[in-house]
């Protein structure tokens, strides 16, 4: 898997809600919907780039929050 980069993206509320609606309808993570949209756009521009990433693995939902356990 190639190196990964993070990018903070600000979008209008209307766009966010539309993306979330698609994610919910397709039962996907919002990040996946955004990656699919970016990949589609790049293909339209003539690029063949994969936006696939590996998932982070198991996260214990019962884990304490960082703020818990501090004195």
Fold topology:
Layout (H helix, E strand, L loop, with lengths): L12 H14 L3 H15 L27
Largest sheet: none
**What is the SS-derived class?**
mainly alpha
**What's the overall geometry?**
extended
- Average the pLDDT over all residues and give the rounded result: 86
Number of helices: 2
Which ranges are low-confidence, i.e. pLDDT below 50, for 5 or more consecutive residues?
none
CA(first)-CA(last) distance: 40 Å
H/E element order? HH
> How many strand elements?
0
Which descriptors would you attach to this protein?
single chain, 71 residues, mainly alpha, 41% helix, extended
Overview of the molecule:
The chain is mainly α. It has a domain at 13-44. It contains two helices and no strands. Helix 1 crosses helix 2 (30-44). The chain is extended.
Structure described in brief:
This protein has 71 residues and is mostly helical. It has two helices and no strands. The protein has a domain of 32 residues.
